[in-house]
């Protein structure tokens, strides 16, 4: 029987969110409550409760929900060492998330990636460069991770005292950083010192200082307990010690792992009871919905515990304003035009500029704009995936590094040669050159260039198209399928036109005019189905779903300047989507020879290579030499690219290498032989412009490495070993290739006058430090001033040094600024005492270090911590 409008106390705006949620839950059946504890919570129509999916991603932009601004990957944002900038990025992301959510709701959509509860940021410690998901983190330092994480969470959650803007989620709690292939099985038991000094501090800070709304458990076990059902982690630590008041969500299908892979219990209902009983309110998966009622009936779990969990979940939905009139929630006034706005696009470029790390420069950079011919060589130079990393949205107009260079120096001849595959043995759909617009026309006699595209709101090319337009090239990659948001942002889809998120199709038609006669290799790549017809005859036919972009090709004898009727048909099933039309023309040189020729004829070579999210990432199903399941087994540049890089250097033309990557690369050879080397990370939608800005001196680089770059032959501890000894700048006592915090500039900075306000301080006191920094060069630039503390190396296993302060400042030539830092010994000098099972601050002598990296220390001062 439906409940009358007068009998819905959960809509009473005068009651607290907790009271309203409790009143709502009291009306639910056990089965309804259990269903609300899974990520895709169904509607309860009799109570007026809409469906809601808790699963949303916003790592570096709203992800998997169509068009959105794509900022640099998290590791690139960390390289800015700019804490306030992270807050600006998160504010932009939450603006877009709110705007998109309200549009989705208005259209009656309540599915995955359309909500307000975001499973970001990833604040795991990037302890080992082989981890494929390290790109999602803020690097290897717990203090920097915490500071950046706080800014990000605050930007997502907003500053309204009543309604949260979004829910942020600190993940993956805890002790989680690979190997990806083993994450559903392994048990990690770090020393308590490593646990409390490295793996937990960022989580603690986000809980206590940022008041993060949610925490996500990890897949693995910790001390024998599933991290997503751990009494030690979720009860003793998170709630009892830290006072966490939010909700916990399992990693996706981690509750299944409890019984199926970890075999902690024997049945799904026992796993559900264990997870709920130990504090995981929300299951990303479907175990709870099916098994909680069984667990309650068997006496494994009380219905009161279920009520408490569901009440907490509805409290957070109400705090997000989902059950209140729009006029009461200030965040509902964010217009849809916030999504992919010009301001956000400019911010994406700024963040990318700040993230670029200049590793080496022997005077080659910045490049003069008077160059006549530039060879841009390498497999990631013109690859959109090299901009995106993982967990990304669909950028409206991504700018590859090749495109950015061409836009920066339109007067120069910029020749592109891919030169090599990304990795050996990978059939890369991006390797074949696209068919350029000049060889395509939408109809006979047309002056336009490109093909006529008909977009259908079904996968069968049936009925009237929702959109008809001319596309200059067929080169699309849509995250989670739908081009809807991208087309709306361009004003191409009107109120009566719509495309679904999945299950749509497109027909492109027109004429193909080859420039010369010969054998062409025509290639169509798609995720999912694709068919190509030439003069009405099928030449490519792969009309089936696929889980990734797959290429099909055919060799054809074509006559030059003859117009061939061309038709390409494509359908998208579910999730990620993409399609491209490419060819190899007759007479083309082998890739390496083409690159060598381009380099010999150029004034400078810009090599662009490294990695992409296609080879490093989360639990991937493809393996290549040097890669396994998304992780890396070799930190060197892939052999295909190393051969290409050496061939470029052998031509005698100066070479600058630009590395796209989400992790450290052992580029020893490049350091020894090339005059200039920089890291662009996965730089987001405006990454190509940002790289060009740095190359040609419009921007003075100041990014810093948030991870240690090790030498290629460095013997690393076993990947499976979670002990910190020998890892990261805090415990590695060898010589790195490039140290944590490293990054050069086109100008120089001098440090002097380090002063402490006292030389003796108690653990409960504060220590003030000041230092003068002057731009001693001839260009304006940013300097990232870093403060470290080094304690006594007394055999207790303490770290070698710890970052405890960062300030990124801009100085004109000759300008000087005095910077202030405050040290709180009780927090900044604490270490975990395993014998006493508590944090302690050791009395004794310490050294405060200020410099431009963890190894480039410019000023030092000693102080003493006195016994309390």
From TrEMBL:
<keyword id="KW-0732">Signal</keyword>
<dbReference type="GO" id="GO:0031222">
    <property type="term" value="P:arabinan catabolic process"/>
</dbReference>
<dbReference type="InterPro" id="IPR013783">
    <property type="entry name" value="Ig-like_fold"/>
</dbReference>
<dbReference type="InterPro" id="IPR026891">
    <property type="entry name" value="Fn3-like"/>
</dbReference>
<dbReference type="GO" id="GO:0009044">
    <property type="term" value="F:xylan 1,4-beta-xylosidase activity"/>
</dbReference>
<keyword id="KW-0378">Hydrolase</keyword>
<dbReference type="GO" id="GO:0008422">
    <property type="term" value="F:beta-glucosidase activity"/>
</dbReference>
<comment type="similarity">
    <text>Belongs to the glycosyl hydrolase 3 family.</text>
</comment>
<dbReference type="InterPro" id="IPR036881">
    <property type="entry name" value="Glyco_hydro_3_C_sf"/>
</dbReference>
<dbReference type="InterPro" id="IPR036962">
    <property type="entry name" value="Glyco_hydro_3_N_sf"/>
</dbReference>
<dbReference type="InterPro" id="IPR044993">
    <property type="entry name" value="BXL"/>
</dbReference>
<dbReference type="InterPro" id="IPR011658">
    <property type="entry name" value="PA14_dom"/>
</dbReference>
<dbReference type="Pfam" id="PF14310">
    <property type="entry name" value="Fn3-like"/>
</dbReference>
<dbReference type="Pfam" id="PF00933">
    <property type="entry name" value="Glyco_hydro_3"/>
</dbReference>
<dbReference type="GO" id="GO:0045493">
    <property type="term" value="P:xylan catabolic process"/>
</dbReference>
<protein>
    <recommendedName>
        <fullName>Beta-D-glucoside glucohydrolase</fullName>
    </recommendedName>
</protein>
<dbReference type="GO" id="GO:0046556">
    <property type="term" value="F:alpha-L-arabinofuranosidase activity"/>
</dbReference>
<dbReference type="InterPro" id="IPR001764">
    <property type="entry name" value="Glyco_hydro_3_N"/>
</dbReference>
<dbReference type="Pfam" id="PF01915">
    <property type="entry name" value="Glyco_hydro_3_C"/>
</dbReference>
<dbReference type="InterPro" id="IPR037524">
    <property type="entry name" value="PA14/GLEYA"/>
</dbReference>
<dbReference type="Pfam" id="PF07691">
    <property type="entry name" value="PA14"/>
</dbReference>
<dbReference type="InterPro" id="IPR017853">
    <property type="entry name" value="GH"/>
</dbReference>
<dbReference type="InterPro" id="IPR002772">
    <property type="entry name" value="Glyco_hydro_3_C"/>
</dbReference>
<feature type="domain" description="PA14">
    <location>
        <begin position="446"/>
        <end position="599"/>
    </location>
</feature>
């Amino acid at each position: 029987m439906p409940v009358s409008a007068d009998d819905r106390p959960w809509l009473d705006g005068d009651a607290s969110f907790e009271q309203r949620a409790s009143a709502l839950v009291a009306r639910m059946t056990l089965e309804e409550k259990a269903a609300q504890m899974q990520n895709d919570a169904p509607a309860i129509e009799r109570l007026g409760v809409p469906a809601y999916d808790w699963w949303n991603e916003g790592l570096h932009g709203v992800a998997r929900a169509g068009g959105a601004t794509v900022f640099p990957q998290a590791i690139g944002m960390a390289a800015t060492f700019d804490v306030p900038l992270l807050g600006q990025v998160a504010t932009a992301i939450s603006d877009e998330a709110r705007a998109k959510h309200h549009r989705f709701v208005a259209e009656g959509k309540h599915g995955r990636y359309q909500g307000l509860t975001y499973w970001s940021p990833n604040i795991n410690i990037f302890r080992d460069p082989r981890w494929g998901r390290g790109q999602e983190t803020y690097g290897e330092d717990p203090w920097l991770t915490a500071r950046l994480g706080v800014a990000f969470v605050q930007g997502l959650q907003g500053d309204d005292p009543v309604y949260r803007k979004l829910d942020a989620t600190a993940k993956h709690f805890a002790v989680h950083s690979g190997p990806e292939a083993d994450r559903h099985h392994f048990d990690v038991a770090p020393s308590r010192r490593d646990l409390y000094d490295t793996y937990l501090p960022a989580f603690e800070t986000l809980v206590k200082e940022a008041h993060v709304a949610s925490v996500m458990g990890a897949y693995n076990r910790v001390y024998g307990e599933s991290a997503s059902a751990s009494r030690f982690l979720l009860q003793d630590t998170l709630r009892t010690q830290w006072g966490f008041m939010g909700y916990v969500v399992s990693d996706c299908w981690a509750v299944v792992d409890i019984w199926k892979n970890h075999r902690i219990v024997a049945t799904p209902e026992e796993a559900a009871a264990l997870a709920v009983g130990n504090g995981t309110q929300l299951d990303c998966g479907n175990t709870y919905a099916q098994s909680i009622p069984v667990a309650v009936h068997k006496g494994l779990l009380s219905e009161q515990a279920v009520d408490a969990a569901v009440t907490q979940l509805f409290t957070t939905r109400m705090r997000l304003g989902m059950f209140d009139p729009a006029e009461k929630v200030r965040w509902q006034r964010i217009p849809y035009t916030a999504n992919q706005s010009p301001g956000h696009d400019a911010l994406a470029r700024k963040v990318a500029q700040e993230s670029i790390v200049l590793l080496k420069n022997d005077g080659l950079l910045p490049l003069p704009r008077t160059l006549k011919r530039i060879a841009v060589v390498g497999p990631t130079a013109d690859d959109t995936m090299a901009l995106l990393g993982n967990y990304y949205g669909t950028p409206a107009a991504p700018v590859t590094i090749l495109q950015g260079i061409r836009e920066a120096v339109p007067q120069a001849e910029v020749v592109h040669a891919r030169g090599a595959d990304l990795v050996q043995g990978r059939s890369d759909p991006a390797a074949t050159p696209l068919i350029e617009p000049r060889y395509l026309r939408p109809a006979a006699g047309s002056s336009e260039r490109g093909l006529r595209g008909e977009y259908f709101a079904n996968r069968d090319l049936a009925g009237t198209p929702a959109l008809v337009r001319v596309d200059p090239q067929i080169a699309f990659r849509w995250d989670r399928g739908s081009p809807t948001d991208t087309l709306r942002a361009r004003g191409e889809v009107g109120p009566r036109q719509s495309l679904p998120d999945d299950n749509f199709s497109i027909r492109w038609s027109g004429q193909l005019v080859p420039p010369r006669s010969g054998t062409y290799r025509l290639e169509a790549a798609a995720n999912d189905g694709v068919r190509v017809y030439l003069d009405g005859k099928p030449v490519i036919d792969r009309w089936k779903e696929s889980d990734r972009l797959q290429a099909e090709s055919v060799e054809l004898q074509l006559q030059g300047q003859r117009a061939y009727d061309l038709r390409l048909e494509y359908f998208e099933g579910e999730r990620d989507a993409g399609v491209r039309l490419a060819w190899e023309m007759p007479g083309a040189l082998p890739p390496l020879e083409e690159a060598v020729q381009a380099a010999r004829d150029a004034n400078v070579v810009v090599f662009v290579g490294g990695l992409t999210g296609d080879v490093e990432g989360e639990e991937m199903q493809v393996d290549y030499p040097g890669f396994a399941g998304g992780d890396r087994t070799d930190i060197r540049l892939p052999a295909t690219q190393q051969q290409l890089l050496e061939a470029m250097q052998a031509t005698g033309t100066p070479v600058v290498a630009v590395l796209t990557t989400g992790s450290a690369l052992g580029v020893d050879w490049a350091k020894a032989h090339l005059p200039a080397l920089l890291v662009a990370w996965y730089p987001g939608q405006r990454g190509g412009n940002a790289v060009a800005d740095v190359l040609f001196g419009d921007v003075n680089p100041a990014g810093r490495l948030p991870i240690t770059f090790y030498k290629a032959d460095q013997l690393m501890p076993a990947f499976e070993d979670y002990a910190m000894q020998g890892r990261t700048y805090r415990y590695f006592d060898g010589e790195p290739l490039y140290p944590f915090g490293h990054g050069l500039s086109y100008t120089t900075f001098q440090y002097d006058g380090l002063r402490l306000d006292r030389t003796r301080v108690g653990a409960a006191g504060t220590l003030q430090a000041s230092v003068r920094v002057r731009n001693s060069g001839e260009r304006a630039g940013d300097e990232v001033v870093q403060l470290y503390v080094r304690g006594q190396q007394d055999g207790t296993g303490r770290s070698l040094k710890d970052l405890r302060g960062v300030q990124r400042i801009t100085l004109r030539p000759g300008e000087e600024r005095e910077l202030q830092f405050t040290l709180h010994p009780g927090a900044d000098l604490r270490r975990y005492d395993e014998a006493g099972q508590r944090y302690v601050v050791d009395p004794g002598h310490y050294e405060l270090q200020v410099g431009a990296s963890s190894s480039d220390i410019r000023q030092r001062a000693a102080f003493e911590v006195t016994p309390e």
